Each structure stands twice: as structure tokens, then as C-alpha cells.
Amino acid sequence: RPIDDLMSTRASAALRAIALAILAVAALLTLKNTAVILLSDRANPYPLTEWLLNYDGGFVRRGLAGSAVIELRRLLGVSVNLSLFVAVSLCYLLLFAHVARFALRAPQFGWLDALAIGSPAFVLFPALHQVAGQRKEAILFAFVSAIGLLAVKRWSRGIGVAVALSLAVLVAVHEGLLFFPLVFLCLVVQFKASRFTWTRLALLAAPSVLMFGLCFLSTRTFGETSMSALCAAIAEVATGARCPPLHDPRLPFGSAEW
Fold it and tell me: What is the mean pLDDT of the chain?
């Protein structure tokens, strides 16, 4: 038994080292891809334009992040491309930090854990896919990772309000994030209190659902004039974004039209 335990400990340590090496490579590749997509001359217009959707033409779904970045540019002169690069990079660094913490602190670390970390559907995804990996879903990964890193053990009213408002902000950035049950599952597991009832979960989701409804209603009043103002704001501050008039048959469908 002592020999078996020693072999098991060594195997676990080796797997942890492999997982951490994968995380380091994934982090470097993700930073490189993010720089290519958001900073370089080869910047991809779809994710860049999606990040810069804004409220200059009126309230519109997915417009919160773009409005914040554009206002930062107008007030302080900070490059929009650089701001987005820093924001997306920080989101993924939070994710990598959370996974690294798990790899280092998990009481038992086996092959399945190492394979999950090395899966192309997990931390390698933004490293392998240069467009989809740099979209707004990065904020969702950062939010879930932040919850894990904070490791809050006790539920309180203040924490509940902060989480509910944060989820509403996520939906204002991208309304599709409401449909990722991973967020609520992580909350249930993280707080894992007997007091965490379905009623509390519904109250957590209420601001997000309300924000989603506002995003849906905004599509009924958003037209050509609003689109022109939105695109003008993007053209004013960004390099590499593409925001054409609605229904322009000469140009491919992009994130602004969507």
C-alpha cells in the first residue's frame, strides 16, 4: 500500500504539471490570438464590431460594453482596440487562474481532470479559434471564474444583490448569456447552502430576465437612423471594425446587422 500511495501521488503530481503546462501554453496563445483579432492590421471585423455595439443610436441589445469603451475613448483618449484587448485578456486570465487554482489545490487530480483541462472545448478553445474565442462569451467565463476565486462560503443579502446586478450587466453586454445555465449552476454549487432555494434562484435571475425583455423590445424601435448613429460612433473611434448600412446587398452579413 505505501508503494501504491507513492505511485499515485507521483502520477497525480505529473498530471498536475501537464495540466499547468497546457494552461500556460493556452494563455500565451490566447493572448496572441486576442492581439491579432483586436490590435493588428488583420483585426477581424466581426468580433471587433460586436464588442463596439453602442447606445449612440438609442438603447439596443449588446450595447453596454461598446458604449463604455467608446465613452472611455472620448473622455480619456484611450485606444478602443487597446481597451478591448486588455478587457478580453483579463477575462481569460481570470479563467486560467481559476483552473490553475483547481489543478493545484484539488485533493485528487486524475486523468479525467487533465483531459478536461486539455480539451479543445475548454481552455484551449480561445487558443485554437481566433474569432469565436475573442467574443463576448469571455465575460461569462470571467464572471464564473471570479465567483470560484472568491470562494464565498456564506450567502448574504449583499452578495445576492451584487450577483443579481452583475448578471443583469452580463445580459446588457450580450443577451444570449442569459441562456447559459452554467452560471446559475456554479452559484448553487459555490454557495451550497440549504437556504439556497428556488425562490432565491428566481430572485437572482429576475434583473437579468428584465434586462433581456428590454433588449427584445429595443429591436422594435431600432431602425436605419439608429443604425447610422451606432455605426458613426464605431467609425469615429475604432480601427478594423465594419458597420455598414442595414440590408446592404454588396456586403456580407456582420455582427452589427445581427
Answer: 77
